[in-house]
Specification:
This protein has 288 residues and is an alpha/beta fold. It has helices at residues 2-26, 35-40, 55-70, 86-92, 104-114, 154-166, 202-205, 216-221, 226-229, 239-243, 258-267, 270-280, and strands spanning 47-53, 74-80, 98-103, 118-126, 130-133, 147-151, 171-172, 185-187, 193-197, 211-214, 232-233, 246-251, 285-286. The strands form three sheets. A six-stranded mixed sheet has the order 2-1-3-12-4-13, sandwiched between helices.
């Protein structure tokens, strides 16, 4: 009889240990589960979305949608880049899920030159390009033979030349459009000289030339206010404004990823439009 009691105690101990192990295993799944979740069978998982961006204004705008995405279980991780190349190669190689820093003509040029397959998933804002003073304080005082610094990438250089043409400083072959280069200049009465520089370098070298034509994001990073400091800027109704809207880009095949779609929807929200209007005073314009 005593031996039977001992066997029953031993069996009870084994069953208790097995039950404890089973409960422990159920609680180590790596997901967060509440009492309500347990009843419904739902678990909460956080998805990480990595986005490359220029510091100003792109990263600043992305910061505004972090709370919106967090409510949907998306952890937005923003990495800032100071150039126009690495953000694209990072997405192409899978180090970043998306980027937000460029316009469609630049993206198309980059794809053609580098064999990448990046696509736009949404237009967010437009940054008017402006002309800024350097050695010369105004357009009216521009001397013969003056040097004007312009971006050295094809799409932004054409845009800069068209802005100069709009001020009557040069004339460009009408057929060149937004593919214009200095070779397409048909009239240059002041014999202006053009210094082609990487776009990010233009604010740093502005004092070394007579005038500089600078993208608004780099102008702002350089401490310039495009709305008040530029001598002239692109018209919001210009062809450039419609063509050079800044976009969110991803690697082809990821356009319909739920996290990507959530990002674009958040960026095109009323909250972001209001933030852009209040923060940048016309230096950045929402296009949605």
């Amino acid at each position: 009889m005593e031996e039977m009691k001992m066997n029953k105690k031993f069996l009870s101990l084994i069953l208790a240990l097995a039950l404890s192990a089973s409960l422990t295993a159920c609680g180590s799944s790596g997901t967060t589960e509440t009492a309500d979740d347990a009843d419904s069978g739902d678990t909460t998982e956080t998805v990480t979305l990595k986005v490359a961006a220029s510091p100003t204004p792109h990263a600043e705008i992305l910061e505004q949608v972090k709370p919106i995405l967090a409510e949907q279980g998306i952890d937005l991780v923003i990495t800032e880049y100071g150039d126009y190349i690495v953000p694209n190669t990072a997405v192409d190689e899978g180090d970043e899920d998306a980027n937000y820093f460029q316009h469609t003509p630049y993206l198309e040029q980059f794809n053609a030159e580098n064999g990448t397959d990046l696509v736009s998933v949404g237009k967010i804002h437009y940054e008017p390009m402006g002309i800024y003073a350097g050695k010369t304080a105004s357009l009216e005082e521009l001397p013969d033979g003056a040097t004007i610094a312009v971006p050295n990438d094809a799409t932004n250089e054409a845009r800069a030349l068209q802005l100069l043409a709009a001020q009557g400083l040069i004339e460009i072959d009408p057929e060149a459009g937004l593919n214009a280069t200095p070779n397409d200049i048909t009239s240059n009465p002041k014999n202006l000289q053009f210094k082609e520089l990487e776009a990010a370098m233009l604010p740093q070298t502005a004092s070394e030339v007579d005038l500089s034509v600078i993208n608004s994001n780099f102008a702002m990073e350089g401490g310039m206010n495009p709305a008040t400091d530029s001598l002239a800027s692109e018209d919001a109704d210009s062809e450039a404004a419609q063509t050079f809207a800044n976009i969110v880009a991803v690697k082809e095949g990821h356009e319909n990823d739920p996290a990507i779609q959530a990002l674009v929807k958040a960026l095109q929200s009323d909250k972001v439009k209001e933030y852009i209007e209040k923060t940048y005073s016309g230096a950045v314009v929402a296009v949605f």
